[in-house]
């Protein structure tokens, strides 16, 4: 898509810039914008976005579950909106990590399955990410990284070819009245919330508090927090047109999502990002290394003092030997003198 035109504040500065200034401007832009510093491209227009949470398994996970069991094919709570700051921080300055279902036209622009997070036999793009922003939201400057975890097939409304469409997974925001795939709360499925709870905010936008959602287990806390975070973004409608561009998925995001669903199904939420433990391990290693260095310094000092003590003792012994030799020589000389005197007499 076309690059956005410069803002009124920036256009004059660039127009008046002398020929030698482009490099300086580039440095200033890179320093002030993490996204530009990472080489982001121009924003593309016209991405139609919607939201859902029907508790159903995500298409990319269908090939992961072995053997396939319909009752274990459910959405992992970890797919709910997540604050990057809880898992090591944002890569592009983004405020949310999201998952969602992509139309075939969108998936074709994301590339092949990434290999970390399932596969899609129909359109690819599983585990690939895009950066999005909603110009009409309460926070139009917020960006979100969205990973494809499912397919929005051409027979679904809004995903017909060649439409570029993204359906974002957001607990509490499923339009239950028209949803044809909602299994939340159905017998035999561990979905953590029921159908009513999956759509508590579907009819509202911009600050739904998600108060009707449960918040008493690790899994429901993740779903509840995801609902609140998504609501804080402040969509003004359920189908905004977004700006977007493909990006590499943040490694910590990939780590979280790839660990959420395995061949046996949904993994416990307690399996959070390992970065705090890794950081703690690194800290312990550094402390141990510091202790080794301190001990080595102390050992070196002890060795030096011991060497100095031995050298001093050696010098003292030499001095004693020298003195002893002098005394012995004096005694011999005295005896020789005494013997000479005796002989002459």
Automatic annotation (TrEMBL):
Keywords, alphabetical: Membrane, Transmembrane, Transmembrane helix
Region (Disordered): 302-345
Membrane-spanning ranges: 275-298
Positions with biased composition (Polar residues): 336-345
Keyword Ion transport: no
Protein name: Uncharacterized protein
Protein source organism: Alexandrium catenella
């Amino acid at each position: 898509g076309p690059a956005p035109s410069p803002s009124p504040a920036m256009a004059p500065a660039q127009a008046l810039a002398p020929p030698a200034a482009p490099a300086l401007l580039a440095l200033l832009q890179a320093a002030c914008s993490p996204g530009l510093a990472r080489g982001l491209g121009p924003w593309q227009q016209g991405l139609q976005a919607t939201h859902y949470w029907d508790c159903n398994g995500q298409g990319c996970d269908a090939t992961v579950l072995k053997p396939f069991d319909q009752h274990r094919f459910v959405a992992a709570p970890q797919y709910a909106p997540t604050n990057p700051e809880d898992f090591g921080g944002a890569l592009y300055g983004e405020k949310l990590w999201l998952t969602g279902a992509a139309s075939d036209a969108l998936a074709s622009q994301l590339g092949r399955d990434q290999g970390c997070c399932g596969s899609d036999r129909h359109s690819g793009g599983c585990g690939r990410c895009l950066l999005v922003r909603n110009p009409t939201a309460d926070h139009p400057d917020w960006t979100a990284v969205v990973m494809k975890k499912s397919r929005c097939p051409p027979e679904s409304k809004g995903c017909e070819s060649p439409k570029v469409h993204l359906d974002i997974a957001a607990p509490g925001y499923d339009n239950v009245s028209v949803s044809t795939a909602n299994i939340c709360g159905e017998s035999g499925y561990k979905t953590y919330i029921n159908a009513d709870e999956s759509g508590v905010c579907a009819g509202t936008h911009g600050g739904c508090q998600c108060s009707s959602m449960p918040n008493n287990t690790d899994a429901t806390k993740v779903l509840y927090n995801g609902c609140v975070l998504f609501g804080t973004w402040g969509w003004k409608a359920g189908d905004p047109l977004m700006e977007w561009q493909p990006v590499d998925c943040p490694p910590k995001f990939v780590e979280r999502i790839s660990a959420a669903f395995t061949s046996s199904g949904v993994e416990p939420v307690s399996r959070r990002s390992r970065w705090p433990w890794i950081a703690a391990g690194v800290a312990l290693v550094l402390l141990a290394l510091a202790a080794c260095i301190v001990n080595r310094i102390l050992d070196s000092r002890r060795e030096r003092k011991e060497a100095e003590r031995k050298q001093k003792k050696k010098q003292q012994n030499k001095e004693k030997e020298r003195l002893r030799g002098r005394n012995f020589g004096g005694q011999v000389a005295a005896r020789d003198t005494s013997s000479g005197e005796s002989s002459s007499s």
